[in-house]
Amino acid sequence: MIKAPNTRAEALQRDAADPLADRAALFDLPDGVTYLVGHSLGPPPKGARDRLAAAQADWAGDLVRSWNSASWIDLAERTGDRLASLIGAQPGEVIVADSVSVNLFKLAAAALPQARTYALFVEEDEFPTDQYIAAGLGGLSGAEVRLLAPGGSFEALRAGGVVIKSAVNYRSSEVTDIAAHEREARRQGALIIWDLSHATGVLNLKLAADGAVLAAGCTYKYLNGGPGAPAFVFVAGELSPKLATPLPGWMGHAAPFAFDGKYVPRDGVARFASGTPPILSLAALSGALEAIEGVDLGQLQAKARALGALAVARAQAMGLDVLSPVEDGRRGGHVSLRIAEGYPVVQALAARGVMADFRAPDTVRFGFSPLFLSYQAVWNAMAALAEILESRSWDQPQFHARAKVT
Ligand SMILES: Cc1ncc(COP(=O)(O)O)c(C=O)c1O
Q1: Which of 111, 159, 180, 343 has a CA that sits 20 to 30 A from residue 144's CA?
Q2: 392 in active site
Q3: Cβ distance 18 to 303 under 8 Å?
Q4: Judgement on whether residues 281 and 302 belong to the same structural domain of the protein
Q5: 189 and 303 share a domain?
Q6: How many domains are there within the chain?
Q7: What is the pTM assigned to this prediction?
Q8: Is 53 part of a structural domain of the chain?
Q9: pLDDT tens digits along 294-316
Q10: Do 37 and 85 fall within a single domain?
């Protein structure tokens, strides 16, 4: 167990010894805000703003020539290569494209013919899009789709199909043992598509060492790429030649500017590109990655878990129901609490400058992005939560009004 600071003074001591403390200066965050929603939408790193401005200048200056002069045409691959080092993969195994939803679809369709059986499995507590995509693909492809009880993926590997599974569960923050699942998958002729949305940029992922071969993930959470930043696809080098994308667009063609009627896929993961890359979003993401590059990923994970341990300890002291694993090694970067009146509580926290999020019906999530948060900030946020609950100040009409996005 990580020893959490027990007093504000101890939190300050931890900040003084924090090897990542200087990274906070790389972010633009409003004064007076404690941002505990980096697991949903990361805040803007200054590098993102700068690269976005540079891309806009290229657009205005060199116009269409920028595809060549600013190498826009390679940006999705170059950004993918940089991302590879953050997930324990090799350059050439990651490309940035589309959304996680679309990438899960492409990977699952490509994986089905490679697995021992033509069946798709997903747990019923997975992020809804993962379940919808599996069901939709099942309808199109004729693959059998089985919804599993939470935690049922390991057992399901025996059936030899394709499993879609999160490395960190979006609601509970429970971490999955990637290596153990991959060993079993190999024994059973099954394939696993890892959803790395809540793991990338916060855990010390080692995909190659753990035997993972397929993954998709998000860049707008802990990678701070910006709202709607494009997602990524990972395919292990040895597997990609065997895979065919179900969305063979021109950007996945070996020679897109030959305008040939016959589709010839590009080598490697790049075949999973479909249409024109979103250059402005990619530019922002590319600048955002500068805030994490050069960080020791072991230290990154350790700090996220230590901030989480602080929140868990404070929540337990308040007598709250902690939904996330209490054991640090089993938890990702966020901590979820079950609070029946969670929605107004989150609004009351926001009114005090502490931003968290709410997932219906009763889950309040606090994200601990290790690049810009301090122990002191988390200590103060938990103290604010204690005061709000004790005084019941959340029970005011303005905190009950529901917005579209929670
Ligand atoms: C675990 C998980 N998977 C998938 C998604 C959906 O990603 P996208 O909107 O890029 O399709 C999310 C979004 O938050 C998520 O948390």
Answers
A1: 180
A2: no
A3: yes
A4: no
A5: no
A6: 2
A7: 0.97
A8: no
A9: 999 999 999 999 999 999 999 99
A10: no
